[in-house]
Amino acid sequence: MLEKLGVHLDPELLVLALTHRSFAHEAGGIPTNERLEFLGDTVLGLVVTEALYRRHPDQSEGDLARMRAATVSQRALAAVARNLGLGKYVLLGKGEIRTRGFEKDSILSDTVEALIGATYLSHGLETSRELVHRLVDSTLDVAAGLGAGLDWKTSLQEASAERGLGSPDYIATFEGPEHARVFHSTVVIDGVTYGSGSGTAKKHAEQGAAEETYRALLEKFPLPGADADGKAADNKSAENKPAENKQADGRSAASKAPAAGA
């Protein structure tokens, strides 16, 4: 695993980074990886934010924020962990092993952040920056082209407002025991039910419901001249063109008119 990470970590620090709270509890209350996760989350956010700022000088703050959120999301980091084969190394309690905690997005993403935190403590910011880029650069590249898919909830909020509709309401339910819970979410706008979604976390269910509703709004309430993401085009430049053309025509006509007294 360390070969894939491309860094060397002190064995004691590495074990700490891999220690989930369920294992720590069963082992008599030994330290967990949660403090390292907290540190790694901050380092990850800094490196990704800097990269986005430098690579996309023309993007707005809102677009950069959505790109960052997509890159450091639980789902994205869990995918990084799976590429590393990290699940089999995480130290879990018997209960989490029984419910296949080594496959859970939440545990995998937290462990990635803990490893970044451990790298920062061992080697400082520059080595940590190199590690983060190795882990998430491919996600950064994809995020630049996701458009509305960067954050379906925010995109839905904007699409609803552009169409003069109310704010989306998310109706949440869940089923199953606490260790294997499945969440369901349904979007209601102005009393009308649109999309629904499900997932192992509430926010995943809401994102799924928001995506389905977003697509439904684009189909039901298309905007004139909308782009591929369903956003209304900026017509200001187009609105100015007729006036500019008229002025140009006026100048042209004036130049062609015979001089007075000719």
UniProtKB/TrEMBL annotation:
Which residue ranges have biased composition labelled Basic and acidic residues? 228-249
The principal localisation class reads cytoplasm
**Coiled-coil segments:** none
- Reaction(s) catalyzed by this protein? Endonucleolytic cleavage to 5'-phosphomonoester
Compartmental location: Cytoplasm
Q: Which residues form the RNase III domain?
A: 1-124
Pinpoint the DRBM domain residues: 151-219
Q: Where is this region: Disordered?
A: 220-262
Keywords, A to Z?
Answer: Cytoplasm, Endonuclease, Hydrolase, Magnesium, Metal-binding, mRNA processing, Nuclease, RNA-binding, rRNA processing, rRNA-binding, tRNA processing
Q: What is its EC number?
A: 3.1.26.3
Compositionally biased tracts (Low complexity): 250-262
Amino acids binding Mg(2+): 37, 110, 113
Query: Does Cell wall biogenesis/degradation count among this protein's keywords?
Result: no
**What EC class is this?**
hydrolase
The answer, when asked if Lyase is one of the entry's keywords, is no
The record's active-site residues are 41, 113
PROSITE patterns membership: DS_RBD, RNASE_3_2
SUPFAM superfamilies in UniProt: dsRNA-binding domain-like, RNase III domain-like
Cofactor(s) in the UniProt record: Mg(2+)
Which GO molecular function, any one, fits this protein according to its record? ribonuclease III activity
Family that this chain belongs to: Belongs to the ribonuclease III family.
> Which proteins does it associate with, and in what oligomeric form?
Homodimer.
- What is its biological role? Digests double-stranded RNA. Involved in the processing of primary rRNA transcript to yield the immediate precursors to the large and small rRNAs (23S and 16S). Processes some mRNAs, and tRNAs when they are encoded in the rRNA operon. Processes pre-crRNA and tracrRNA of type II CRISPR loci if present in the organism.
Q: What is this protein called?
A: Ribonuclease 3
Question: What high-level taxonomic lineage is stated for the organism?
Answer: Bacteria, Bacillati, Actinomycetota, Actinomycetes, Micrococcales
